[in-house]
């Protein structure tokens, strides 16, 4: 049965789904702003060290200071426009341009600052996988270009680091890289990993809680259906009207066919689908015990492979099988005490649906009678159930007795999960 969700409930569900996305965006925003502040401060300090301590007066200290100023302007602009993508792209372009300039003017491919390109790639992957791939290819192209420029020995990109300051410059570059890698990226990656682990544990805990609650729901539904079945049975015993007794017995069997589905759902590991062959076996035994009160040697052959069906398909299909077996036991073997009932189910080869064949080798009924013309409740119910399963039901006149050929689809109902 499909339940219509009220509009206000749909809006509440939508808002709950938007919360994790908003939290993820907020985390990325905080991480990027923190990176901008940290890298700007380090660039300013590194620039001052280069200018006043390492005696580097050309290009490199000016690039560090310019990067610091432009990056802070980028953060200030973000507070106005609020576009995270624009700020991320601006930060990346500034980082790539500054790294390229400092690398070219501090030894080219031999510059220790060239490793900052790897940190830029890592920063891209922290943002999104797409940005990470883009930065990776850009870094590879830049490394190849820097290498070719070093081979060509262009005099335009002269090494501005004095020879006496080269070791100290390399040391400071390594400190710069290691701090960004360990003190910033590594720390935040570890925190992210820890948060993901906690989130995974919390999700698993909630799933287990919901599975327990869902099993309890199926258990209570089954118990309530059994109670209704027992009440019908008691009512049938207190009436002398045989026709009314038969109606109550049929209703009782229909209720039990649905109760068995809920029972199998809470008893097995999979709470969304049931193994259909054991279900039909159990249903068949129950109907034989309920309707074959004389103990006639009627054989029930069930040929169903390892097929699992969801509750929305299993219940109407179980009701359909219940009606067919009930009709066979009540009307198929009136003139004989022996017989056979066959239930055969297969998945279509093209995967479009399922084919069910069910019938008996009893006396049958007139071949001129069609399912549309019949006035019996059981056959009408079978026709309606086949239509509910988006399928069709026809009489199979090629076999002795009464046989039905049913084509149906598995119903795929979308469940809305409420946290």
What do these coordinates show?
There is one protein chain. By secondary structure, this protein is α+β, with helices and mostly antiparallel strands. It is built from ten helices and seven strands. It has a five-stranded mixed sheet with strand order 2-4-5-7-6, with helices on one face. A hairpin with a 6-residue loop joins strand 6 and strand 7 (about 400-410). Helix 2 (about 60-80) packs antiparallel against helix 3 (about 85-105) and helix 4 packs antiparallel against helix 5. The protein is rod-shaped and about 115 Å long. Residues about 1-10, about 15-20 and about 415-419 have low confidence and may be disordered.
Topology, pairings included?
Blueprint lengths: L6 H47 L6 H22 L2 H21 L11 H12 L1 H24 L13 H72 L4 H26 L5 E3 H16 L6 E6 L4 E3 H22 L6 E9 L6 E7 L16 H12 L3 E4 L6 E7 L11
Parallel strand pairs: 2-4
Antiparallel strand pairs: 1-3, 4-5, 5-7, 6-7
Helix pairs in contact: 1-2, 1-6, 2-3, 3-4, 3-5, 4-5, 4-6, 6-7, 7-8, 7-9, 8-9, 9-10
